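Repro case for the chain-ordering regression, as requested:
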Amino acid sequence: MTITCPRHILIYLVSGTAVMLGLPSVPVVNATSPAAPLVLQGGYLRTQSDQGDLVGDVLIRDGKIEAVGVEIKPPENARRIDVSGCVVTPGLIDARSTLWLTAAARREAASDGRLNILDGVDPLAEDWREVARQGITAVYVQPSGNLGGQGAVLAVAPSRSVDELVICAPAGAQASLGIDGSSSTSRARYSQYDRLKKAFEAAQKYGEQKRKFAEYQAQQKKSAEAKKKGTKEANKPKDGATKNNDGKQDDGKQAGSDTKAPSSAKAASTAKPPTEPTPDPAKEFLLKVLAGDVPVRMEAHREDDVAHALKLADEFKFRIVLEGISHPRSQHRSLLERRSLLVLGPVVQLESTPAYRRRRGDDWLTSLTSEGRRWALATFGEQPRASRLLRVHAAAAVARGAERASVLRAMTTDAAAVLGVDQDLGSLAVGKRADLAVFSGDPLEPATPVRLTLSAGQVVYEANAERPGREVVAERDAIELDLLPAELPARYAVHSTRVLRGGQWKPGRLLIRNGKLTPWKIDKKLPAGTPLYDLGSACITPGFLIAHGSLGAAPLIDDPSEADASHLRAADAYDPEDPGVEALLQAGYLRLGFAPGNVNVVAGAVSRVRIGAANPIQGSPCAVKFVLADSARNSERYPASLAGQVALIHDVLENKGLPTQRFAPAAIRQAHRDDKQQRLAAVLRRRTTALFEAATATEVRAAIQIIEKFKLRAALVNPDDIRPFIDDLVRLKVGVVARPVRVGDYDHYLDGLVQASRAGVNVAFGSAMDPLSTGAIDARLTAALAMNAGLTPEAAMAGLTTGGAKLLGMPNHTCALVGGAPADFVIWDGMPLNVSCRPKYVVIDGKMAFAGKKAADDKMRKLASVMPAAAAE
Amino acid sequence: MYRFAIALLVAFHFGCGSTGAEDLVLMAAKAYTAHGPAIEPAVIVIRDGKIAELGAKIELPAGAHVVDLGDAVLVPGFVNAYSQMGISGGSSELTRELTPDFEVLAAIDWESRAFREAVDEGVTTVGISPGTDNVVAGIALAAKTHGKELRRRVLRPNAGLVMTLASDPRSRNRSRSRPDSIYVRQPTNRMGVVWMLRRAIQGARRDESASGVLAEALQGERRIYCVSRTHFDIETIARVAEEFDFAPVIVGGEESHRLAELLATRKLPVILGPLRTSVAAGTEQTDPVWNRAGVLRQAGVQIAMSGPSLLEQARFAVRFGLAADDALRAITCVPAGILGIDERVGTLQAGRDADVVVLDGDPFEFTTNVQAVIIGGAFVVPPDRRTREPGEANQTVGRHAAGSQSRPAPQRTQSGPNSP
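-- result from build under test --
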């Protein structure tokens, strides 16, 4: 079957769930002979060139794209790859990465431009594999510091030498203002600016000196030649015509010396002849920058730094590409007016946030990138493998309101233009380097697996999965939305063609009466006078669950003085006014396993929280948390070792725990003791879940042994690699709460989750400590990335809803749209496992708890209309 | 070497066709059993991971998988009596001084590289002890260095109680570096170490009902190891032992040669620590003598060795005066006896585990290499080839034959000793 109707493909893109099948993919590198032409047939080509989007073929020969078009006749010897049903884009570009860099090179800094990043490249590093697996084919790398030096665009492909990797070098001169540790005071900031200025002035002076010396040399040469000629000429006539010209010559000399000699003599005595400057490669490089051959890549975030950067660019007339720009404020307008080239990212901060990136406005990205301005997306990765998450940032950019097409350009054609490599990269056009990525769905979604990655015509990654299905979810062409009113009546019904019930998307109606939910058959008549809101094909799901999270409140819960803190209850530290709570609610999470932190071996009780509800704490604790990770080892109190942790947990569960050393009145001590005993008895009777936080293999094994010995109902929290333990997990019915993906993770972390899920392990998703720092998307992001690695959409969705609830022993109706459950649900502006989508409405107890902004409304309409329209072109 | 490769090739040829748990027969030029006289030539029949029969001439069981190792010399798998191999997340519970029931069993990373390196050197069994930061450190165990099933790897979860009578425990005192901490740890000096040990023992003795590990050990139900290196520490523990009537194994014993007579009369065995050839060094400034092992043995002290490069240590001891026989016993059956696992490992005898090291010459010749290591009847180094496809096996042999000038590089493997 060939796809003839592009609209279907796009619908399929929008409804990305159908495609995420596939076995765990192992990167396969085929040494395709560069001589053999290669043709990709029948793909949906997003060429990023004048050709636009089309269904067609790409012919590749000798590492270049030879033809792009409909039904190209391939040469006889060509290798053919059928990519019908897949989306083909130019290879993605990470405009700022640390791929290929050694650990030392990632830190190396200078302030006179003397470094060349190619000297810090390790061409045998293996990190490229995981990056290529996500469709990224080129990265920009550079040194660091105030004025570090030469950056380069490198390929993502196997290599034996640095030269093989280089696509363009030098591609930029790295500079920064106000981002390092000494940027805290305005004086320190000024000195950074001053250093840059001095460096460029020195380069100018050097250039001037060089020029003068060259002139002088040229002059010397000339005069030497002239002298030679002169003497020759002078000698010639001397032989024959001395007598005749004698008097005349003398006259001339006399006359000349009268006018010139005094001045030249004076000059010779006062000014030395120009000397040759000591050759300085750093300044030579800056001369290229000043000549406009290489742009300056200036990272600046605060308005004053941005102003300084622009001032320098004006003064020295170099080309400038600005990076970061977290808080442009007053400089916003001048940036827009100057049409400065920008490198922006990271859109989501997965781990720690540097001070200069904190509190970026929600419109930070859109305000800088509107009106078709050219910008490049970048991960700003601090670890080489971070570039594999480029599409996470792309999807997050869309979620923040950036245009889909613009974001794709920011990773392809616009990125190439910003990096100055648009001759070679960035579009599917004849003569370009054959860097391509083939996606089994929407390229902007992190959940979409890559089928094929080509670098210079060579296959550098090929999924060995079965061909992803091409099932197209039938839906109406245009979605006309009956938007919900801000004030919902006491009784109403909603209708959508996609309601998540029993793990499946089905057309359905929900009747909401007095804050309770009743699923309603479509053909059944609604009670008289019930308003029905038709939401078209908008997805309706129960609120999602974070199976393990502390909302950044861990320090409030934990009391690190004694390792057995089983009397602590996380719920006692729950603050419904916490800004993190609102962040979770707006991100579509309505249930939370609210857990204590990880500094105590028996950390305390985990509570069920209904986010946004009037009475958020639900019943008695649902789990007790034990920590075997190293965070609970503390040499200031027992235990300080893993073996000690294990011994302590044994003692506690055998009711041989040490008496508390804390001072407290007898009554309180007794109350604590009672609490402990009651709680641990519930764990031993399997009435509450035991959560074991364990990271390394040894810790996980220790946890499994304890679970087995005491026959606990248990789940592992935040394990690093569960692949060796899947049999044990299945045998003991132990679930897993997956931690958020970290920047430095290897793919086997996700592969482990996928394998466990396939084997029947209940996999739920946890959150990082503070939802504000990650934009509260991390649990959904983990699910999406696990789908990229092969998790089924059903399993991913279950992990965020009923599966996770079951793991924590929550009641059956938790996170399910079933009759009698509280009317808590979320209406999404797309597929919920697509990171680019956001909740449109969040309803709690039948009442509107959050309604997306106007921008989201527009986007939702566009979602239905824009994409097919683009395809029709 | 070349013959060895050919022999393997022949062996595969016979072995590949048959399936199931058939007997494995090793044929070699010589075997030192660490039990009786050497056997020459040597034939060992291995059945179900155990040595079924061994001798110079044996009727080969029908259908056996015969591996002719040619000139090779067989010795029992080495036993490293004392180590902290594979312990992760801290080897001591250093928040307290006395942790008699501290067990490292739960904190061992069985995939640790240290185990694989030990296997490469021919070490098949290892004693794993808690670290030396505490006066009474905890419980030691004995385990195999390789094996798929962890349960079967641990030979004895309870191989004895480890104490430290050395200067190590005082170095963990934090009351000076952290005056703000309320968690003050003792002792602060070496005499404090002795005081704490004596007090602990007195406490365990006095309190009859104490279910303590220490009390059990003092009653002789558990082996006691004491880490002591200087002669005065060894003397002190000997005195304390006499006072409280127990017989510790001295671990470390760097200056034990000065007390050879005392140790011999009191029948205190010594596990010599890692080989150190430099003069007075380390925090305790001990003064080792190169013929330490020879002097001790001469006096009649039972010696075992521990630490990395076990075979090299034994060779070193032989080089400076220890009898070759005693040297082999010091890295095989003596440590096995001390750990209480000599019914399983440490000698080549019928009924013992088939843990065999294949050497290409005399064990104490410095140029002799470890060619293969067999644990529980399976080749671990190089990996068990019987599980491979015939083509693959031939390929491997071909490679060995090609590089016959050097020994086959030790290969790491995940395959279990009991895999068919």
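Ordering looks correct now. Residues 190-206 of chain B form the longest helix (17 residues).
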